[in-house]
Amino acid sequence: MSRLNCPFCQIEEQQIIFQNELVISFRDGFPISPRHTLIIPKRHIASFFELTAQEHQALFEALHILKTEIDQEFTPDGYNIGINDGLAAGQTVMHLHVHLIPRYKGDCTDPRGGVRWIFPEKAAYWL
Ligand code: 5GP
Ligand code: ZN
């Protein structure tokens, strides 16, 4: 996936909800919860591990700002913060993005385990 066919390199100005010098943020196009938000570096890189120290800092600053905004608007009860890094890990858009996923009490039957549910048969270690 190059810049030319990368959906995140085609994000339009009006979709951007926050940006700083190095990262931008917009809502996920297929949200799994209200205010599911993505944060990406402006630079087209695939992996979290390619971030410079400055981009890393800018990304985490944005994460905190966006979380505070969502808290004020929707008062979620928790968050999943996730990166699918690499095809084997489930990444479908090869431009690094951090998922900020607000969670709400009762939004699923039993939220225990969170990201462990990538392997449903191994998720519930407490049983
Ligand atoms: P991944 O599986 O790579 O971690 O997640 C890709 C995410 O990008 C998905 O949650 C999907 O809903 C979102 N997405 C894919 N294409 C677009 C798009 O064109 N616009 C927006 N806003 N989100 C997209
Ligand atoms: Zn891109």
Describe the structure.
- The structure is a single chain.
- The chain has 127 residues and is of the alpha+beta class.
- The protein has one domain: HIT-like (HIT family, subunit A).
- The protein is built from two helices and five strands, in the order βββαββα.
- It has helices at residues 53-74, 120-123, and strands spanning 16-19, 23-27, 37-41, 78-82, 98-103.
- A five-stranded antiparallel sheet has the order 1-2-3-5-4, covered by helices on one side.
Any descriptors?
single chain; 127 residues; alpha+beta; HIT family, subunit A; five-stranded antiparallel sheet; 5 strands; 20% helix; binds guanosine-5'-monophosphate; binds zinc ion
Structural class: alpha+beta
Helix content: 10-25%
* Percentage of β-strand residues: 15-25%
Tell me, what's the shape? globular
Characterize the main sheet.
5 strands, antiparallel
Could you give me the name of the CATH homologous superfamily? HIT-like
How many domains? 1
Assign the CATH class: Alpha Beta
Instruction: Write the CATH architecture name.
Output: 2-Layer Sandwich
Average pLDDT confidence is: 97
Give the strand order, joined by hyphens, for the main sheet. 1-2-3-5-4
| Ligands, deduplicated | guanosine-5'-monophosphate, zinc ion
**Tally the helices: what do you get?**
2
CATH topology label: HIT family, subunit A
- The topology string of helices and strands comes to EEEHEEH
